[in-house]
Specification:
Layout lengths: L1 H9 L1 H19 L6 H25 L5 H30 L6
């Protein structure tokens, strides 16, 4: 517990930045018109693909005996992959709505 409190005290500025960026992201996304959600989702999926590649590279640099880091990295890759696949499925369904029916 003391190590967690020491970490929080050492990195308090980064924690403030993360919290402020969360609020900023909510405000920016909340003001996006409905028409732009499909292109933005496609862009977010592409960016998240880069994040997955980064997580794989970082996992390759972890020491083999560091089980916690390997488990967290594996979860990051799996959840990131699910996010990308789900985003492309939703984007595809949204684009289907704009096609003419026969």
């Amino acid at each position: 517990m003391t190590s967690v409190l020491a970490f929080l005290q050492d990195h308090i500025q980064m924690i403030y930045i993360v919290i402020l960026s969360i609020f900023l992201g909510i405000e920016v996304i909340g003001r996006v018109p409905s028409v732009l959600h499909t292109p933005l989702m496609s862009g977010a999926n592409a960016i998240h693909g880069v994040v997955i590649i980064g997580a794989i590279i970082v996992m390759g640099q972890v020491e083999p005996d560091d089980t916690v880091a390997l488990v967290i990295g594996f979860l990051a890759v799996v959840l990131g992959t699910l996010n990308v696949v789900g985003g492309f499925v939703v984007t595809d369904r949204m684009l289907e709505m704009f096609k003419k029916k026969k």
